[in-house]
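Most newcomers find our protein records easier to grasp once they have seen one. To make this concrete, we reproduce a full record directly below:

===
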Amino acid sequence: MNTIDRLFTTDPAEFAGAYINYVQSVLECIDRTEIGRFIRTLLEARDRGATVFFIGNGGSAATASHFANDLAIGTNEYERPFRAISLSDNVAILTAVGNDFGYDEVFVRQLRIHARTGDVLVGISVSGNSSNLVKAFEFTLSVGIKTVAITGTDGGKMKAMADEGIHVPTEAKDYGPAEDAHLILNHLAGAYLMRSVRAALAPPE
C-alpha cells in the first residue's frame, strides 16, 4: 500500500487536504542546491548555444513537453534563445521507431541524429528505471552530452547514472505527487529564467 492509498478517505475534502499536505511535505524535502545547479546548467547551455533535450514516458512525457515549451517559448528570448526540444512529441517518429526497432530505441535513435557534444539531456521519470530513458543516458557517455535526471522514489538507475539531477523523495508508486513536484520544478525554473533574461536585457538605471 502506497502513501496515497493510506491517505484515502471517502470524504473528498478530507482526502484533498491530506493529499495537499503530503505534496507539501515532499516539496520540503527537495534539495534546493540541486534546483540551483539545474538552472545554472540551463543557463550555461544557452550561453554556448547548446540544445536541451527533454525525454519522458506517460505523464512525464507531458512534463517533458511542458518543460520544452516553457524554456524555449516561455522565456520570451529570441536573440539568444534557450534551445529546448521534447523528444516525446513526434508521434510519427515514436511509432516508427517503436514499430521497427522497439520502444527502447525511441529516444536514443533521435539523439543519434540531433544531439551534439555539449548538449544537455534531461530525463524525467518517477522510477528512474524506464529502459528507453536509461538507454538514452547510456548513449550520452559516448558523445559528450551532459545528463540531468529528474526522478522520484529512490531515483533508480537514472539517478546513479546522471551527471546531476533533482530527486523528489516520494514513496514507491506515488506517481501523482512526484509528477506534481516535477511540474512545479518546471514552473519554478521557467519563472526564474524568464526573469533572469529580462533583468539581463534591462537598461541600467
